[in-house]
Amino acid sequence: MELQIAERIKTLPMHFFSNLVKKAEAQKAEGVDVIDLGRGSPDLATPPHIVKALKSAAEDPATHRYPLFTGLPELKEAIAVFYKREFDVELSPEKEVAILFGSKTGVVELPQCILNPGDICLMPDPGYPDYLSGVHLSQAVNYFMPLTAENGFLPDLGSIPEEIKKRAKLMFLNYPNNPTTAVGSREFYEDAVKFAEENGIIIAHDFAYGSIVFDGKTAPSFLSVPGAREVGVEFYSLSKTYNMAGWRVGFALGNEKIISAINTIQNHYFAGLFTAVQWAAVAALSMSQDCVKELVQTYQRRRDVFVGALRKGGIEVLNPPATFFVWIKVPKNYTSEEFTDLLLNRAGVVVAPGIGFGSQGEGYIRASLLCDESRLAEAAHRMTNL
Predict the structure, then answer these.
(1) Could you give the CA distance from residue 298 to residue 45 in angstroms, rounded to a whole number?
(2) Pair 181, 325: CB distance under 8 Å
(3) How far is Cα 205 from Cα 237, in angstroms, rounded to an integer?
(4) What pLDDT score was predicted for residue 15?
(5) Which residue ranges in the chain fall short of pLDDT 50?
(6) Which pLDDT score, from 0 to 100, does residue 204 have?
(7) Model pTM?
(8) Residue 170, SS3?
(9) So what's the pLDDT on residue 16?
(10) Are 210 and 324 in contact, with CB atoms under 8 Å apart?
């Protein structure tokens, strides 16, 4: 019998990061000392008090049962308190918070809640590749908004054609931005809310790097702008803030109707996040935030070492204001993929080619700050001495 796989699966976009991993592993198998700056998985351990909370909760037999479908009320309350404390945003825990299996799950689910076949989604270019997946599964259409250095890596909303705005139902934004590291301003969010109101477009703001901002500055939440929750939702993740990437805890916040739709689709996909992990998330959000401050300081030191070494070696690069990435222009006469392959094959350094994030990423590579300062200095030395 010849098995048939659905077209929606066969035509899904190639998973960009899995290809990077294969290339790096092939080099390691040949004995190359590879420095992997290509991925975005935090390298440091989850803070001990969060691990302790998980252990304690996991020892309670009550957590071994099926969890509540929409999550612990105590976790939703902790999220609301966290958002008020950190971003001055008031939320209803019952109506404006949805618990997610990591924010990635949410950004793939949301288009399936909003878009019908043929609808248009406004997509940042360059942007996080997994935004494409949910739109594809919805049989909707992408319209790519260029993020250019000349415009501070913000989309020019005024340049979007009228016929596109009429069909558009959803727009993804992501600040602090992966991969460009740009930070969105309140003024930009105010413009985005006005644009959404005028055109009947829902905004999905990915705030996964909201707590990783350098030089004593902060990044505003999209939801802190008047009118934001009337037009959209914001996604947040514990993966970056607390080094909990493998724990898969995130949440969607904002518009009550959209939150209800997300909860509905999750009721069909999942049976709820393991209760012990939810209690650990409560500890992360509610207990001392010194671990977050220390993490940001660690990334800032790494940034300064890496960027300083690149500049010393003759590579022009701007200091990233946020995230744990560096967005670097490639030398002339190379494409981003050619330069990425050159760095891997001749220097043993893995980076992500900008083209993997969209056509506007051509001419750049993305390097992560997810190894210690000595390895980052070594990587910069190799990159500048090809």
Answers:
(1) 13
(2) yes
(3) 12
(4) 67
(5) none
(6) 98
(7) 0.95
(8) strand
(9) 64
(10) no
At residue 23, the pLDDT reads 81
CA atoms of 315 and 328, how far apart (whole Å):
9
Query: In the numeric block, which tokens belong to residue 337?
Result: 């993929």
Per-residue pLDDT tens digits for 43-73: 999 999 999 999 999 999 999 999 988 999 9
100 vs 102: CA distance, rounded Å: 5
Secondary structure tally for the chain: helices H, strands E: 15, 12
CA 111 – CA 135 distance, rounded (Å): 5
Q: Are 306 and 99 in contact (CB under 8 A)?
A: no
d(CA 198, CA 378): 51
Rounded CA Rg of the chain: 21
Euclidean distance between CA atoms 204 and 227, whole angstroms: 14
Q: In angstroms, rounded to a whole number, what is the distance separating the alpha carbons of residues 187 and 193?
A: 10
Separation of alpha carbons 224 and 127, rounded Å: 23
Query: Which DSSP string corresponds to 303-363?
Result: HHHHHHHHHHTT---PPPSBSSEEEEEPPTT--HHHHHHHIIIII-EE-EEGGGG-GGGTT
